[in-house]
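Sample intake sheet
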Amino acid sequence: MNEHGIVNEKDIKGLLRRDKLFAAIHKQYGPPPAWGRDPGFVSLSKIILEQQVSLASANAHFQKLNTYVPEFSPAHILKLTDEEMRTCQISRQKAKYLRELSTAISTKSLDLESLSTLGEPEVRIILTAVKGIGHWTTDIYLMFCLQSKDIFPIGDIAVVNTVRELTDAHSQEEILALAEKWRPLRSLATYFLWHHYLKKRHRT
């Protein structure tokens, strides 16, 4: 385990002491995987494709697109026609979002490499300024690509459903209030909740 990443022994011990919910998940399934992705255009594009669809579907669409273009880069994405996007099973909306991201990078209004030097609030302002990137997409990028340690993606259906399943918190307000006691390790808490969600459904 990388001690600087979200999943590390010190933080796990701290979270297990903080809430017995995670002690129970840990006892049943062990620690969550140290999920992570390389920062940059490819990972952010994948996260956009994962909006509101299954990971399997998003991955299949990404693979079609990745195979179709000579290189998965902003320049090559911007050359694609609507018809070519459809051929790669990219919806009109997702195609628009990928073009918005590609344009922002090509015009240098977005510098993804600089995000690792910024705090979470600044990253959120910069990313959500790009059409098609909302708080969920930003949350996932912050956790997986930048390994930000205190993110709670209230827009993630799997996380919300798992909290509802395992606790008495049901409304968004109740879930956010519960998550407050997991600070400053809310990303690790989220990883545990995903871990439980996937293990229970035999998806890992």
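Comment: The chain has twelve helices and no strands. The mean pLDDT is 96.
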